[in-house]
Amino acid sequence: MPEWRVESGLADYAETLAAMEQHAADIRAGEAGELIWLVEHPPVYTAGTSADVAELLAPARFPVFSTGRGGRYTYHGPGQRVGYLMLDLEQRGRDLRGFICSVERWLIAALADFGVSARAVRGRVGVWTDTPAGEAKIGAIGVRVRRWVSFHGFSLNVAPDLEHFSGIVPCGLAEYPVTSLAALGIEATMADVDAALQRHCPFL
């Protein structure tokens, strides 16, 4: 069973990235067990392997990191739960698409605990819900697999400053806004969200 680790405070992005990559390598080497690592970061923009620099609208606003995960630009910051999933997919079926769908279903189930009706949408990775202004993204997913060990993972908007997303085109989808539990009028602490995530985690 994976270790479930919740980091207190704000975790430096570069240090977290290095630790995550090392842990994934250690799993494949048989020197470490699987890990689900929940963190919050200071404000950063991160670029996935499909990122288009034209979608970085405010490059000087926050630090920008290139990462090896899939996807385009995203934002991480306080009030957003980021989950890093270091799992041995060789032992879990070698099904990358099935893995991503499992993460989507996981976030949807956790959000349902707060009365949020969320869904996956064909052709758009992530988790979506309806708002008075229309459809919006509440959870992002970006994973990488190396030698059938996963790393990176998901982000779920609990109560981040949504204006910070204006410095990028989130996930390359200019036509869709982002939302959060707080923006939907739901008061939930990070501990509340963590409990729901742990309750519904399909990997434990």
| Number of DSSP E strands | 10
Which structural class matches the secondary elements?
A: alpha+beta
SSE series: EHEEEEEHEEEEH
Q: What is the share of helical residues?
A: 10-25%
Straight-line N-to-C gap: 6 Å
Estimate the global geometry from the Cα principal axes. globular
The biggest sheet amounts to: 7 strands, mixed
Count up the helices: 3
| Radius of gyration computed on alpha carbons | 16 Å
- Average pLDDT over all residues: 96
Uncertain segments: none
Q: Tell me the strand order in the biggest sheet.
A: 1-2-6-10-9-8-7
Percent strand equals 25-35%
Please describe the topology of this protein.
Elements: E1 3-10, H1 13-28, E2 35-40, E3 44-47, E4 64-66, E5 73-76, E6 80-86, H2 96-112, E7 118-121, E8 124-131, E9 134-146, E10 149-157, H3 190-200
Parallel strand pairs: 1-2, 3-4
Antiparallel strand pairs: 2-6, 3-5, 6-10, 7-8, 8-9, 9-10
EC number: 2.3.1.181
Enzyme class: transferase
Pathway: Protein modification; protein lipoylation via endogenous pathway; protein N(6)-(lipoyl)lysine from octanoyl-[acyl-carrier-protein]: step 1/2
